[in-house]
Amino acid sequence: MQSRTLLILILGSLTTIGPLSIDMYLPAFGGIADDLGTDISRISLSLSSFFVGLAVGQLIYGPLLERFGRKRPMYIGLLIYALSSVACALSTSVEALIVFRFFQALGACGGLVASRAIVRDLFDTREMARVFSLLMMVIAVSPIIAPTLGGVIAAAFGWRYVFGLLTLLALLVLTGAYVLLAGYERKNRQYSLRPSAVGRNYLSILTDPHFILYAMTGAFSSAGLYAYISGSPHLYLELFGISEQEYGIVFAVIAAGLIAATQLNSRILKLRSSERIVFLALVGQFSVALLLLADVGLGFGNLYFTTGLIFCYLFCLGFIFPNASALSLDTMRHTAGSASALMGSLQMAVGALASALVGVLQNETALPMAGMMALCGGLALLLLAVGSRRLSPAAVEAA
Fold first, then answer.
1. Nearest to 236 by CA among 148, 147, 366, 143
2. Are the C-beta atoms of 20 and 142 separated by less than 8 Å?
3. pLDDT tens-digit readout, 304-353
4. What's the CATH fold of domain 4-180+197-389?
5. Pair 307, 106: CB distance under 8 Å
6. How far apart are CA 286 and CA 280, in angstroms?
7. Where along the chain do its domains lie?
8. How many of the other CB atoms lie within 10 Å of CB of 302?
């Protein structure tokens, strides 16, 4: 196996395929809508279908990663992603784009699930939280680069070239993973792929109170991010009336909150437990969400103040997500692939629902987005507060 730094770089590149697929085409929503003869709210359904694909696809990859190892399913997934990206670029209707985005997400799942499973294979709980923080930093860089790059490409060449670039990036990641992960493998030929056996395995994971508490806490908290992503084109491009290039800059500034938090999280882990960090960050996230809801609901908001609140919301998420992810996988020592898949699927399912509801409830204001962000933060905090008291002392000690 290569050095730790190179390993994390590889895992980060695999993990960031999904976020790049979300962030890079956001500034082009207006151009896509005009070209396909529809409106931005309809184009946003292609974002929701991508989230649904991520939720479904990860459940498929989990058992495959256990049986065939981490690499082969990941390679197949990246190929599916590349082909689907080409199909997205060639779409002539919004319905086709929505369908191909679903398959694009199915392909992206390979890298997402495999990277988390490899982290669980190689690191203990506290180290996992630090590695997840580093991975999240890599993920957080994509909203800084991707919207700006996507906006420039869409303005210069058209939105279809955005998906062309995603195709090229997927092939580059596939090549790098093939070369640099050549010495790593973990497979279990005895793992059964029969639907009944797969179902029992997933059920056993779901009934682990430690897993379900932190997986769902992370899912609800991160769903606020998907609500923001879904609602941000309407908020910034239509309500605030900024340009696509300016939207990319704003998106980058907000994403900097995630990067700052992930860097601080690695340091704070030396002083505080992951459980404590998650709780305090959730309190902060929910408080900020309530301020944002009041801001847009009462009509006091302006571009800078609203952006500042969203920045703080994602700053808190930068502490919640890596620690909740590490805690949810802590007890999954022999089913890391399936547990990683199920955790990701739960997160994407809740995220897809939040994203879709923002679109469905759209009323030409920012209230659906802000309300969903507050609801997600509140549910995450409530779940953790109630659920942590129900964990047995043994489970708490194991954490």
1. 366
2. yes
3. 899 999 999 999 998 998 888 888 877 766 676 778 778 878 887 888 78
4. Growth Hormone; Chain: A; (1.20.1250)
5. no
6. 10
7. 4-180+197-389
8. 10
